[in-house]
Structures are given as structure tokens and as C-alpha cells.
Specification:
single chain; about 90 residues; alpha+beta; Nuclear Transport Factor 2, Chain: A; 4-stranded antiparallel sheet; PepSY domain-containing protein; signal; PepSY
Length: about 90
Amino acid sequence: MKTSLLKSMTASALLAFSLGAFASSACTDTPRDKWLPQKEIQAKLEKQGYSIKRLKAENSCYEAHVTGKDGKKAELKINPADGAVLKTEEK
């Protein structure tokens, strides 16, 4: 019985931790007035070979819908403070 309870509590703790990490996926805590302009982000992405379909501010990130050099579509999460691509999700 103690083993089941311990396993159950461990699983619950891991689930809570992973959900918390997922929910707190902020790109930056930099104030919006310090963010790079969208035109600068767009230029950086184009220099990397992306064709931009849409670029918008979303919460604490820039979100870009792009097509890569290889023709694959993707959604990018970008740190607006420095222009770094933080996450790429192929569509």
C-alpha cells in the first residue's frame, strides 16, 4: 500500500512540475518598449532564409508563420528582446 501511495504521489508531483514548466514558457520579461521592432525581426528571419507569412506579438513573444528554404511551413516563437528563435514547430 505504501509503495502505491508513494508512486502515485511521485507521479502527481512530476505532472504538476511539467505542467508548470509548460505554462511558464514566457519568451522574455523585457518590457515591450525595449523589444526589437517587427521589421528588425523580419529582416533577421529573412537573412536566415525564411519567407514570412505572418509576424505578430503574442503574449511575451513574437510569433512567426514562415516557410523555410526547404519549402516546409513552420511556426516560430521568437524572443522579442534579441530576436533569437526559441521554438520551431513544423506545420
